[in-house]
Amino acid sequence: MEPYKKNWRAHIAKYVNLQKVLKKGGDGCSPEKYCKKEHLDVQAFKFWLELIKKEDEYTFFLSFSTEYLERSKRSLELLEKYMDEDPNLRMPLMRDTIVAYAAPFRKSEGRIFKKWSLKEIEEAISESLKPIHQKICEHRDTIIAHCDIGPRDPKVGLLGITLKGAGFYWEDYKALMPDFKKLVEEVYNELINYIRRENLAPVQSAFKDFLNPPESALEDPGAP
Predict the structure, then answer these.
(1) What is the pLDDT of residues 113-151, one digit of tens each?
(2) Which residues make beta-bridge pairs with 160?
(3) 154-165: string of b/e by CB count within 10 Å (b at 16+)?
C-alpha cells in the first residue's frame, strides 16, 4: 500500500477512536476540528472517511453476508446428507447452520460510526417464514452463541438438573429443517436482488463516486 493511503487510513482510524473516547464523556470532535488540529485538508479527510464507509458497506453485503448465508446452506446440505448416517454430526451441523444464518442479521460494527445488518432483507422475508426466522435468530442469541439460563428453565432435584425448555434438541430442529431450508434460500436470493438494486456490484458501480478524488486526497498527510 502506498504511504499516502496508509497514512490517510491511519488518520481516519485515529479520528474514529478519538470520537468514541470523547462521546463517552458527552463530548465530540468534528472532522473540521480534527483536521485543524492535525493540519489536514478537510475535503481530503472527508473523501477518505466516506470511502472507508463505502468499503464497509460493500464488504458487509458482498462478502460477509453472502459468505455466511452460503455457509449456512452448505451446512444444511451436509446435515441432510449425513444426519441418518452419523447422528453425532446432527447438532454440530445444525448449530453451525443457525449461527451462520443469524450472524448477518445481528449488528456488525463498522469502522466509521455505523452498524451494518440485513435489516432490509429481514423486512422482505415472506410472512409464512418469518416465525422460523425469528425462532432461529432467538435460539442463536440465547442458547447457541450464548448460554442464557432462562430459556432452558432448569429445575434442580436430588437426581440432578432437569431442563424443560423446548428447542434445544435434535427432534426440535429436525422438524424445522424443510422450512429452514426454504428460508435460507429465500434470504440469499433477496440479498442478491438487494445488491443489484443498490448497484453494489460490480465494484466500478459501487465506487463510482470515488473515481475522481480531490488532488489533496492523493497527497501524503504524514503519519498521525
Answers:
(1) 999 999 999 999 999 999 999 999 999 998 887 777 777
(2) 157
(3) eeeeeeeeeeeb
* Residue 123: domain span: 3-218
Sign of CA dihedral 140, 141, 144, 149: negative
Query: Which tens digits make up the pLDDT trace of 6-54?
Result: 999 999 999 999 999 998 888 889 999 999 999 999 999 999 999 999 9
DSSP 87: G
Q: Domains in the chain: how many in total?
A: 1
* Residue 82 included in any domain: yes
Alpha-carbon separation of residue 131 from 146, 166, 190 (angstroms): 21, 15, 18
Q: Bridge-partner residues for 162, per DSSP?
A: 155
pTM greater than 0.85: yes
Task: Give me the residue label for grid cell 463530548.
Answer: 27
Note the pLDDT tens digit of each residue in 76-95. Answer: 999 999 999 999 999 999 99
Residue 73 lies in a domain: yes
Phi, psi of 84 (to 5 degrees): -90, -30
